[in-house]
Write a structure and sequence with these properties.
It holds the Pfam family LigB. The structure is a single chain. The protein is an alpha/beta fold and 287 residues long. Helices cover 35% and strands 23% of the residues. The chain has 8 helices and 12 strands. The strands form 4 sheets. A 6-stranded mixed beta sheet has the order 7-2-8-1-12-9, sandwiched between helices. The longest helix is centred in the middle third of the chain and has 17 residues, at 154-170.
Length: 287
């Protein structure tokens, strides 16, 4: 019987990649670097053998998709921001068996899922940036990316999260689940975007994000979830907040009473709101 050993909301912003390279931006995301490394340390300490990543940059328009390749290997440059991320080499094992179970459980829940073993289906940076900090020492942990359908509802993604939890419990894997996406995700206009590397696009977005973090830290999860559809719409949730809805679907949705532990200070990046929060695992997800 498998178990979920870690569940976290994480950042993946490309300025983190800039932060580790020489130049004028070196070190600007050091707290996020350390926070991601801490998530990786906790996953390994808890015996994780697989990262399941809800990747908000693997954006799907039809169905729910899981990358079931046995090995993920390649070199990545961001199509969106090639001046931020390029020459990112990666090589991680996959887990076809768990990917297949996730696909089965999503389908059993009444939704359409597809599991892929496609030569040219590479990884996106919402997986690659976190993995660089979490999964680089010793034998790499297996990686199973799950796409985010940008036209799905909060409720659909809740059910996908519940399906992922059922799949993990059917497996023999110890899984660290990562909801890789931002809080508010409003980009500034192109003409001024270069001025917003360390700024939020709108002050009201930061106020809303900080309220969300207060709700998570104080265990007011049901209150947050009741407002999530409106928050997603009004504050331009990344990939329809699919990763976040999956996260709380795994944790038990509005029955979850855990208190999130914030692992880095909230920070703005190119107009968006970013953070890393680790959520305690409820007993029902443990072996």
């Amino acid at each position: 019987m498998g178990e979920v050993v870690l569940a976290a909301k994480i950042t993946h912003v490309p300025s983190i990649w800039l932060s580790i390279h020489p130049g004028k931006h070196h070190g600007i995301r050091r707290p996020a670097e350390l926070g991601l490394a801490e998530v990786g340390r906790r996953a390994k300490e808890r015996g994780a053998d697989t990262f399941v990543v809800a990747d908000s940059h693997w954006m799907n328009s039809m169905s729910f998709h899981i990358n079931g390749k046995a090995r993920h290997q390649g070199s990545y440059a961001s199509h969106e921001l090639p001046h931020f991320i390029r020459d990112l080499e990666y090589d991680y094992p996959g887990c076809p068996e768990l990917a297949a179970l996730i696909g089965e459980e999503i389908t059993a829940g009444g939704q359409k899922a597809m599991v892929h073993d496609v030569k040219d289906l590479g990884l996106e940076y919402a997986t690659l940036v976190p993995m660089h900090f979490m999964n680089r020492d010793g034998d790499p942990i297996a990686v199973v990316p799950v796409g985010c359908n940008i036209y799905s509802s909060i409720d659909e993604n809740r059910r996908v999260g519940e399906a992922i939890a059922r799949a993990v419990l059917r497996s023999d894997r110890k899984v660290a689940f990562l909801a890789s996406g931002s809080l508010s995700h409003q980009f500034p206009p192109n003409e001024v975007s270069s001025r917003y590397l360390d700024r939020i696009s709108n002050p009201i977005n930061e106020q809303a994000d900080r309220l969300v973090l207060e709700q998570w830290r104080s265990g007011r999860i049901a209150e947050f979830l009741a407002a999530l559809p409106a928050y997603n719409e009004r504050f331009t949730g990344e990939a329809a907040m699919a990763d976040t809805a999956m996260l709380f679907g795994i944790l038990g949705w509005d029955a979850y009473t855990g208190h999130g532990e914030q692992l880095c200070d909230y920070f703005p990046s190119s107009g968006t709101g970013q953070v890393i929060v680790d959520f305690p695992i409820p007993d029902g997800l443990k072996a």
